Fold Nitrogen fixation protein NifU.
Amino acid sequence: MALSKLDNLYRAVILDHSHHPHHHGKLEGEIPLELSNPTCGDVIYLTLKIENNIITDIAFDGNGCSISTASASIMTDAVVGKTIEEINHLAEDFSLLVTGVEVENTKGKFGDGAMLAGVSKFPQRVKCATLSWNALKKALELNEKNR
């Protein structure tokens, strides 16, 4: 069965972010948050800087499949410069998107992340796609508790 042009684009975007992830690494002086997906073994280390309720910088490291790595790369692009409130809404919408729920203005909200809507066809991969977003939510919760 031949892949459609949209499927080919989806694969190309995911593979590009997976092979050349944005914001990959660690931020100096920041304590990383570690989160793992015990189902498949994906692990993410997330570091972020928050100033005046805005994420000013973010980085991730770890080991994961192409979906997990691509999602982390896309997530980091989407959240830099956003307020914590905006990010919480983005995280909720992203979770809906990858579970097959239609979300308005996905390209404007997530950039390349709109391509991850296709993950909904593979329920076992949803945890891979949401790992970085769940790590971010946990990091923001810890930040709020430590204020």
User: Anything to note?
Assistant: The chain has five helices and three strands. The radius of gyration is 15 Å. The helical segments are 5-19, 66-79, 84-98, 106-110, 126-145.
